């Protein structure tokens, strides 16, 4: 009987403590959830601040440049963040325009690529402006070719980039050492390049598709179409480009500064075909000008003499029936090794081709 008494007492205690334990567990779970939610909210609130500091630090670590961003938004539900108001300046007080000025950059996970077993990213740029420039002293050029952009791009987008889209872009060349200042540009640019990481077609030799369009100074229409393979150490590419219906008088600031001539009227067109295969560069550039008339806006006899010479060259090499001036500049060269600066080498091939073509044009037979 005594044992029964104690047994009943233990059962009573257990009956009393069981609800208390359940309440305590439930309370602990609720507080755990509340703390986790608070941490997520705090982390979400702090993440844009941390990202902004990280992006600004990345921009300021680019050799020869300093930059900043205005703000950053984060969209966790789509694995993305958006950079607002990015500016990047070359460290030179005599170049007053930024090298890069981008309204927004959206960097996100490409969800569709997950179905192909790949984790890659999308990049969309709204109103990006690139300013190539020469300083007011003429001693410094802002081109970007002296900088390795691989590291900062990787810092901003740790995923491999598979898709890039550009809306309302502008590329300009400004020379602040001339009077008047030279300002030539292509604006209203739309560009898209897809499948950079070859997610969709593993067997394609040139898996990436490039499309660019825009409007040049003088109302010209630009179009570039190409196929690429950037996964090789030295990229392969097939690119066709054209620039049509440029009003030549709109280029007079440039023509006056660098050639000492003025156009009264005329139209300019440019056609190009470029092929890169296993480090070999082949192709051509064909400038074509029609209805050319030069005028003299100066009493300087040297300017008059130079314009007369240019007019004579145009007359000699024009197709008189069509009133055209045209030449075809052959491109040929080799990018010797993956360690070679790809863009510098390609620029050198273009420069050498132009020099050779125009030397051959004006030298006597």
Automatic annotation (TrEMBL):
Keywords: Membrane, Transmembrane, Transmembrane helix. InterPro entries: AsmA-related, DUF748. GO terms for cellular component: plasma membrane. It comes from Micavibrio aeruginosavorus. This is DUF748 domain-containing protein. The chain crosses the membrane at residues 29-51. GO terms for biological process: regulation of protein targeting to membrane.
């Amino acid at each position: 009987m005594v044992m029964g008494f104690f047994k009943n007492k233990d059962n009573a205690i257990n009956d009393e403590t069981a609800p208390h334990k359940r309440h305590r567990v439930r309370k602990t779970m609720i507080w755990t959830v509340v703390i986790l939610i608070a941490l997520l909210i705090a982390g979400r609130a702090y993440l844009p601040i941390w990202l902004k500091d990280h992006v600004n630090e990345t921009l300021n670590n680019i050799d020869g440049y300093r930059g900043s961003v205005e703000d950053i938004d984060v969209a966790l539900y789509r694995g993305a963040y958006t950079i607002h108001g990015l500016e990047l300046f070359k460290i030179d007080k005599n170049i007053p325009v930024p090298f890069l000025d981008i309204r927004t950059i959206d960097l996100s996970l490409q969800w569709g690529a997950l179905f192909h077993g790949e984790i890659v990213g999308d990049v969309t740029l709204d109103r990006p402006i690139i300013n190539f420039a020469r300083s007011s002293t003429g001693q410094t050029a802002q081109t970007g070719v002296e900088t390795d952009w691989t590291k900062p791009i990787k810092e901003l987008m740790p995923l491999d980039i598979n898709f890039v889209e550009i809306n309302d872009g502008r590329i300009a060349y400004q020379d602040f050492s001339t009077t008047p200042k030279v300002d030539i540009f292509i604006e209203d640019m739309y560009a898209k390049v897809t499948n950079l990481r070859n997610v969709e077609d593993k067997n394609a030799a040139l898996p990436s598709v490039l499309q660019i369009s825009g409007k040049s100074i003088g109302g010209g229409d630009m179009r570039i179409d190409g196929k690429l393979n950037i996964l090789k150490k030295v990229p392969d590419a097939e690119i066709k480009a054209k620039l049509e219906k440029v009003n030549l008088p709109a280029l007079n600031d440039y023509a006056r500064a660098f050639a000492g001539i003025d156009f009264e009227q005329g139209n300019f067109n440019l056609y190009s075909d470029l092929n890169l295969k296993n480090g070999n560069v082949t192709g051509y550039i064909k400038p074509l000008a029609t209805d050319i008339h030069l005028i003299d806006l100066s009493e300087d006899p040297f300017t008059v003499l130079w314009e007369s010479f240019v007019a004579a060259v145009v007359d000699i090499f024009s197709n008189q029936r069509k009133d055209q001036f045209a030449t075809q500049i052959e491109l040929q060269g080799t990018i010797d090794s993956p360690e070679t600066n790809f863009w510098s080498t390609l620029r050198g091939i273009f420069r050498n081709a132009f020099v050779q073509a125009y030397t051959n044009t004006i030298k006597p037979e």
